[in-house]
Amino acid sequence: MPTRTMARSAAAQSNGTALTGKPIAGAGAGAGACAGGPERVVEIQRARILAAMVEVSAERGASNVTVAHIVERAGVSRRTFYELYRDREECFLGAFDDALARARRYVLEDYDPSAKWAERVRVALIGMLGFLGCESGAGQLLIVGSHGAGHRALERRQRGIAQIISLVDQGRAESRARSELPPLTAEAIVGGVLSVLHARLIDATGESLLSLTGPLMSMIVLPYLGPAAARHQLVRPPPAPLDRGMSAPADPLRDVPMRLTYRTVRVLMAIAAHPGSSNREIGLVSDMQDQGQISKLLTRLAKLELIENTPAGLTRGAPNAWVLTVKGAQIEQAIGEGSAR
Fold first, then answer.
1. This prediction's pTM
2. Domain holding 114: CATH number?
3. Suppose 339 and one of 36, 44, 101, 125 were both cysteines; which one would form an S-S bond, judging by CB atoms 3.0 to 4.6 Å apart?
4. pLDDT single digits (tens) 232-244
């Protein structure tokens, strides 16, 4: 490289500008320079761990899952796991609460509290069946896995079931035989519905769970509204498949064999903001002063095909000029979108 170019490069690196002469926003500003921040890294790591818990529980049964199984599937260290969760049970409860919250979004999407009882039950049932169809792993954790996950998980399960029983029990107010129907009727009905769903989740046939809407509704309304109402529910057309985009957020690094760290996030976002930057310039923006560390990280990201060196950086004697690959840009975008929520 000519002496003039080397001098210009050194000056750019010292005052926080790229070789183009444009200032590098956030150079030397420390950890806050890049969007996303450690909170986003924690968010992604937590999501990976919870997703791993759901998957491994479905494969092994909740009672057989260990921390080793979870961290291996999630691609995080044991240290990271224990920074977020006290033990395996607490992790399961986190996954349970997350799955329950998503199930509620499906159920409440079209729910109208002012509608008649049978219609309210039908809408809630369709939402639940839609959730189980779209997120079968999370649904299996709620209905199947919670049986073997300890007393705290069972308590959460029972609280959720109690809300369903309360909704079904409101059918007594619309029944001509209300005085003859004990409150236990609703508990028995909900138990039967859950038994059917339990069996379908364990022995999946590929058939849409929404096809159960008519038969289950017929079973629910029969004791309260009589045979005619039950037949009406049975012959109603099945609902259309749900497409609400409410599934769990995807892990942007799911198919990349690496652990996510705050440094990785900062480097990817620095390259996205300043394509063509050199190792030293990226280190300035991402607050990594050790050039050996930044060089190793960039080399690893390049091997994973998340970044690449442009032709300008391949010239003999010229500094590297890094840009994101298509895969790297997709991951950086996913990280950025998550931090903006």
1. 0.73
2. 1.10.357
3. 36
4. 999 999 888 776 5
